[in-house]
Amino acid sequence: MIGLIQRVNHASVVVDDETIAKIGYGLLVFIAVEKHDTENEVDKLLKRLLGYRILTDQSGKMNWGLKDTRCELLLVPQFTLAAMHTQKKGLRPSFDKAALPEHGEQLFDYMYEQAVKAHTHVQKGKFGADMQVTLTNDGPATFVLQTSPEEEDGRSVAARAKTKTKTKTKGRLRR
Question: What pTM does this model have?
Fold first, then answer.
């Protein structure tokens, strides 16, 4: 699962000439659901997203996450974030990693429901719609968060195993 985060002064989503979502200062997050994603990846990404310290404090430093503030959150589905470049397709992006629409919509809706439970000011775009997204990026500040089934607590299983091996090795050397 991929989240492209933009810290914004304000953002809105228009569908068929109607504003369906609008926020003030906070985070606009474009969400791409990939084929392998489950509710577990949604939970991991949302936890990171709510705690990611990219909102500014009184001194102008990035010290606060959404969970520390009353700032707003706008979630917008965007399957094109899952695009990748392949030699076979040349200059045409491949969307082979993107989830099928039914699966993507189900997980996007789940993410929105969980976000509403965890944070008070949440809006969303419309899955599968032709959306016009308007924003004023603050900073500019743009970040990418990505999860995969192979990770736990933000680290890959391989990285966790490597850390455990180093810890065991250090313990042996000290004896």
Answer: 0.83
